[in-house]
Write a structure and sequence with these properties.
The protein is of the alpha/beta class and 157 residues long. It has five helices and eight strands. Helix 4 links the parallel strand 7 and strand 8.
Length: 157
């Protein structure tokens, strides 16, 4: 079971993430908080708006502008890094935070390195799904690697 680091603390994951292959009716979705993939959102937008605990997960090649009017209303968005070398997830985080004024939980999932945690935070992520082999102490040190930044961000995340 992955560890979830949220704002410097290890927390229990209260969200379930459905795979991209999920195509059942919204009524067949699990109870509780659920992260639905973008393709499912596009197909079942109206039903999901009435589902009180629905979140969104994006792949790094997804286009968040397809749900621009919905993004600010969500309480959790996850961005999936398919490979640690794919930097598009960093850009997605900045887009959702700055262009769509997203204030909820922004979660990094998938393949990223602990060395990238500090930079992920700078782009707007506040929650990280850590792999089983990642030590919490190492992740915490990496997430606060630097005390001073020369580059500004659009806002403080």
């Amino acid at each position: 079971m992955p560890k979830l680091l949220n704002k410097g603390a290890l927390v229990e994951d209260t969200w379930q993430r459905l795979g991209e292959e999920f195509s059942d009716d919204i009524g067949d979705a699990p109870d509780g908080k659920v992260l639905f993939p973008l393709a499912y959102w596009l197909e079942h937008r109206e039903g999901l708006l009435n589902h009180p605990n629905s979140g969104l997960w994006l792949n790094s090649d997804d286009e968040p502008e397809l749900l621009s009017e919905i993004i600010p209303k969500l309480s959790c968005i996850a961005v999936n890094f398919s490979a640690f070398t794919d930097g598009r997830g960093f850009s997605l985080a900045r887009l959702v935070r700055e262009r769509y004024d997203y204030q909820g939980e922004l979660r990094a999932i998938g393949s990223f390195l602990t060395d990238q945690l500090y930079y992920l935070k700078r782009c707007g992520f506040d929650t990280f799904e850590l792999a089983d082999n990642v030590e919490l102490d190492t992740a915490l040190k990496c997430s606060d690697s630097f005390s001073v930044q020369y580059q500004a961000t659009g806002s403080s995340f």
